[in-house]
Design a protein that fits this description.
Elements (H helix, E strand, L loop, with lengths): L35 E3 L6 E3 L7 E5 H7 L4 H5 L39 E5 L2 E2 L20 E7 L4 H4 L6 E7 L5 E11 L5 E13 L4 E12 L2 E2 L12 E5 L13 E5 L1 E3 L7 E3 L20 E2 L3 E3 L12 E3 L1 E16 L2 E17 L4 E8 L7 H4 L19 E7 L7 E19 L3 E22 L1 H8 L1 E3 L6 E3 H4 L41 H7 E28 L2 E19 L2 H4 L11 E22 L2 E15 L3 E15 L2 E12 L3 H5 L3 E5 L17 H11 L16 E5 L8 E12 L7 E17 L3 H9 L7 H4 L1 E3 L6 E6 L2 E19 L12 E17 L7 E2 L4 E2 L4 E2 L3 E11 L2 E10 L2 E2 L3 H6 L6 H4 E2 L2 E11 L4 E8 L20 E10 L3
Parallel strand pairs: 4-7, 34-38
Antiparallel strand pairs: 1-2, 3-6, 4-5, 6-7, 8-9, 8-50, 9-10, 10-19, 11-18, 12-13, 14-17, 15-22, 16-17, 19-20, 20-23, 21-22, 23-24, 24-27, 25-26, 27-28, 28-29, 29-30, 30-31, 31-32, 32-35, 33-34, 35-36, 36-39, 37-38, 39-40, 40-41, 40-44, 42-43, 44-45, 45-48, 46-47, 48-49, 49-50
Length: 992
């Protein structure tokens, strides 16, 4: 997990009992005083002991003390948000197209699509096209009052997407004064350097009936390249690979071991040349023999001439700059009429680089004038007849190449978001409160692909001959416009429209690929391009509700409180890829435009019934409930509900529980995405080395499939693919909603005999049925043969070649096929120790202690009806971003003495397996015991601040104090940033 600039920080303690009892209130409380607030998870005003839904509240002070410039890094330290996506998981080789710089929250490992992000209880427009996923970079940190994390089904209160819970950012109101803050930080190991600058000001007017305030925040988070960490450079980079000393799969020898100095065996940066067409490189452009000193199946060598794996890591963190400008205010005409409004503008740009283009078996004719003489002398005439290729091919060589010198591919993503809120609220009829609001949000996203390539131009440019008139090298197509590039082993389809017109005026310049850095810059300029995809997301939300006591009914324990309301929402998303991508002319995937929207009309109600109060063994007993009826333009009608119980036998102890049914309607991407080409690497589950790594059905199913294709010995099948495989990704207009049943039960203790102590423990169980699941290509291949029968949707989505059995293509699309279930226990402990109240004469300040923890008891997936259950508990799947340690804890202690505050944070989660439990069960010798597990995460943070009476605060800190390093996995279980120092200054003039 991340630990840069305040990541790996615990939750600082707020008011005692806040954040432990499902409380959202952050306020002072005198002995015996009961304060009513709006608690996240309900629109009913209630005091802090009346909330049946478990909630953790994080204060603004905790966020500031962390020194973070990236809010998600801080939130990821909470057990429930451990698998959230931040800069580290969405950069370079770790990310996906369009994800650079995105920060998305993921509750309970159930996905960002099932986590609802709110601002002051209202929805926020998304920044990931075709989804409802909110980029947390759009939330201004210095305006946050607190963050409430509700980990239970609350769809009945807030609508769809709140399957795993809600993260609600509660913003400061009635800001008065002027506050500025600047901060700078840097990593001990070099790069990244982070900058934060904020300015917030506000004033009251009209005798305090009105307030207007504004804020601007600028963050600049620096880039981190893999080569800036010595343990990730060249031969130092270590990764788990197949054990070359275990060719016969001896059960007493581990199948995988950590190996360093790993290279691709069949391609090189300067070009790996195959002169006899047997699929194995023979020479380098210099004429030197191509070295494969130790082959490591399936595609690697330890040492040798091939491209080092370390070169392909790319950036670890992007360069990310974000500016957030906010204006907010209200004017109170009367108790019954208070107008309010908000406006926010966000501009962000993130840039990162990942991997270059690469090519296998490029045919280069013997008449290419760039062909080195030393290589030409090795050409075997008629080598293509050896069986690798076309026997009619002219003489030449095959070149496999990692094209770093053409430019490393990357993306520059610019995101512009604006959001407006307008409304009116007030108190009417003495005891009732209403609110009517309208929210509009819009995100415009430009995703610029850097160092992309025109495939047709590239193949034309490397098909080089000598111009008989000038004696100079030229493109063959310049002399003969009908001569399409001869590349018999490439998947590029030359029958479609070309990006150029062949002939003497095409602009084609000959491109030399024999050696690194030898290409003509003019040729590169003609071949390479930067092309942009544009997207726009829009959100319109109208909401109105009325809250107050049910008229005419007063129980002995008090009023029955209720809320009734209506909501209308429309979400839209449109994406326009560049023409070259749509026509399939570039190295990237074929991408088609997406245009979709939906709307939903809803009515909702909540109720809280005080059954008993102030009786022996019944200090308080109340029942609550909520229901929401929705009508979607896509999936039709749905109903969600929840009910809760709170029982406090005495003031010191209360018990709570909820049962909820939530829904999630499919998003725009899942419904409306057109068919687009994609490429994914697949480790064939039918490869002999993988047969024992699946369910009990795998071996028999693989034998049946391969035998039907004419493979003679299926049990000894070796996957012939060594590169990514082309496939198709598409939406599914036939999807229906998914439904989740959630249970939470817990207890809260606030003993009077231990003043300042508060603790809670809660059990949760979330079970999702008919879940919408989009399996990636690897999952499609695995699930096809891991089911009881090969008659399933996954086998229908996979194509294999007759004779060889190789996977040739696949289809990935969302289906209502999966079931997810997670279960565990959360616990929170807060203790405020004031020695002065214990009778100590000396004033030594106050101490606060906080422990937030979780034990994960279950995390399972059933990929389709009738399939075996897949247990993901205690595993870390870095491809899917699922991190599921059994234990996760965050401990903080803070000492405050006059103007001085010192904080220490300790962050821990238990060790996790680098392999699935299914693989380990079927293959106990997968790795040695010391290599089966990733180490536990243990990081330490330290910070201090001092407040001067003149309104100045200076602060400094260090995160990952002991400079912990990640495992072989590069980004896990800690960040490669390492030890990170930061310091800042905050100046306040009457502000808060």
């Amino acid at each position: 997990m991340r630990n840069r600039a305040g990541m790996e920080r615990g939750v600082a303690v707020m008011s005692v009992c806040v954040g432990l009892f499902g409380l959202s209130a952050v306020h002072a409380q005198d002995e015996g005083e009961v304060t009513e607030v709006i608690v996240t998870g309900s629109r009913i005003k209630q005091n802090e002991f009346d909330a049946p839904t478990p909630t953790v509240a994080i204060s603004a002070a905790a966020i500031e003390r962390s020194g973070t410039t990236n809010l998600t890094d801080f939130l990821r330290t909470l057990p429930a948000l451990l698998s959230s996506e931040d800069d580290l998981t969405n950069t370079g080789s770790q990310g996906y197209i369009g994800s650079t710089g995105l920060n998305l929250l993921n509750l309970r490992n159930l996905g960002e699509e099932r986590t609802l992000v709110l601002v002051d209880g209202r929805r926020h427009v998304a920044q990931l096209p075709e989804t409802a996923a909110v980029d947390i970079n759009t939330i201004p940190m210095d305006l946050i009052e607190r963050v409430d994390v509700v980990t239970g089904g609350v769809s009945a209160v807030y609508g769809a997407d709140a399957v795993s819970g809600v993260v609600n950012f509660v913003m400061k109101k009635d800001f008065e004064g002027l506050v500025g803050r600047v901060q700078y930080g840097g990593a001990d190991g070099g790069g990244p350097n982070d900058v934060l600058a904020t300015l917030t000001g506000g004033l009251n007017f009209a005798d305090g009936r009105g307030n207007i305030a504004g804020s601007i925040q600028y963050t600049d988070r620096g880039r981190l390249e893999a080569r800036e960490r010595d343990y990730l450079r060249g031969a130092n980079y270590t990764t788990m690979r197949r054990n070359p000393n275990d060719p016969d799969d001896d059960p007493g020898v581990p199948d995988e071991v950590p190996l360093n100095d790993m290279h691709f065996y069949d391609s090189a940066r300067q070009g790996a040349i195959d002169v006899d067409f047997d699929g194995v490189p023979d020479t380098l452009p210099s004429g030197a023999a191509y070295q494969i000193p130790r082959f490591v199946a399936p595609y690697y060598s330890q040492g040798g001439s091939g491209t080092p794996l370390a070169d392909y890591i790319g950036d670890l963190l992007p360069e990310a700059k974000t500016t957030v400008a906010s204006v907010f205010g209200h004017f109170n005409v009367s108790d019954a009429v208070n107008f309010f409004g908000e406006a926010k503008f966000v501009h962000g740009k993130a840039t990162a680089y990942g991997q270059p283009t690469f090519d296998f078996y490029l045919f280069e004719s013997a008449d290419n004038p760039y062909l080195p003489a030393a290589v030409a002398a090795q050409i075997v005439s008629g080598a293509a007849a050896d069986g690798f290729g076309d026997p009619s091919a002219p003489d030449g060589v095959l070149v496999s190449r990692d094209n770093f010198d053409l430019g490393v591919r990357g993306e520059e993503v610019t995101r512009d978001t604006m959001r407006f809120v307008a409304g009116v609220n007030g108190d009417v009829w003495s005891r009732y409160r209403y609110e009517v609001s309208y929210t509009y949000g819009q995100s415009d996203i430009d995703s610029l692909a850097l160092n992309n390539r025109y495939n047709d131009r590239f193949f034309a440019a490397i098909d080089v001959v000598t111009n008989p008139l000038t004696g100079q090298a030229t493109c063959r197509s310049n002399l003969d416009p009908s001569a399409l590039p001869y590349q018999p082993w490439q998947s590029f389809d030359f029958s479609g429209p070309l990006s150029f017109t062949p002939g003497p005026n095409s602009g084609c310049r000959p491109l030399n690929i024999f050696g690194e850095g030898v290409a003509d810059p003019a040729a590169l300029a003609w071949v390479m391009l930067n092309n942009k995809t544009t997207s726009r997301l829009t959100q319109n939300v109208f909401n109105a509700f009325l809250s107050g006591p049910v008229p005419g009914i007063v129980l002995p324990a008090g009023d029955i409180d209720a809320v009734v309301g209506v909501e209308w929402r429309r979400e839209g998303s449109r994406s326009e890829p560049p023409l070259a991508d749509r026509l399939g002319q570039t190295f990237g995937n074929v991408i088609l435009p997406t245009d979709g929207d939906f709307d939903v009309k809803e009515a909702f109600a909540e109720i809280r019934i005080p059954v008993l109060a102030n009786l022996p063994f019944v200090e308080k007993l109340q029942v609550s409930g909520a229901v929401r009826v929705s009508d979607y333009s896509t999936v039709g009608s749905t109903t969600t509900w929840n009910t809760g119980l709170l029982w406090a036998p005495v003031r010191d102890v209360s018990f709570r529980g909820t049962v909820a049914e939530s829904v999630r309607a499919p998003n725009i991407a899942e419904l409306f995405s057109p068919q687009s080409q994609t490429f994914e690497g697949i480790e064939d589950p039918c490869d002999a080395s993988q047969l024992s790594n699946g369910t009990s059905y795998r071996a028999a199913n693989c034998a049946a499939i391969l035998s039907s294709l004419g493979v003679l010995n299926p049990g000894a099948f070796i996957d012939p693919n060594s590169a990514t495989i082309p496939g198709v990704a598409t939406g599914n207009a036939s999807l229906s909603e998914e439904t989740a049943r959630t249970y939470t039960f817990g207890a809260v203790f606030r003993p009077r005999f231990a003043e300042g102590l508060a603790l809670s423990i809660d059990y949760y169980d979330i079970n999702i049925k008919q879940a919408i699941s989009t399996a990636d290509a690897q999952d499609v291949a695995d699930n096809c043969v891991d089911q009881p029968t090969i008659d399933n949707v996954f086998c229908d989505s996979l194509t294999r070649a007759a004779g060889s059995g190789a996977i040739t293509t696949f289809v990935v699309q969302p289906e209502n096929v999966a079931s997810f279930r997670t279960r565990g226990i959360d616990f929170n402990i807060n203790y405020l120790l004031n020695p002065a109240r214990l009778g100590m004469a000396a004033d030594i300040g106050t101490f606060t202690f906080s422990l937030i923890g979780s034990r994960l008891d279950r995390l399972t997936t059933i990929p389709t009806l009738g399939a075996e259950q897949i247990d993901e508990r205690t595993t870390a799947d870095l491809d899917s971003g699922t991190y599921a340690p059994k234990w996760t804890t965050v401990f903080d202690t803070t000492w405050e003495y006059r103007g001085l505050t010192v904080n220490y944070g300790y962050n821990y989660f238990s060790k996790t397996t680098r392999y699935s439990l299914l693989t380990l069960a079927g293959n106990p010798d997968q790795a040695s015991r010391s290599n089966i597990y990733y180490d536990a995460r243990e990081t330490h943070d330290l910070s201090a601040s001092y407040d001067f009476s003149s309104g100045y605060r200076v602060y400094a800190g260090v995160n990952n104090l002991t400079d912990e390093r990640p495992d072989y996995a590069i980004i896990y279980p800690v960040s490669p940033v390492g030890r990170f120092y930061y310091a800042g200054l905050k100046v306040s003039f009457g502000g808060r």
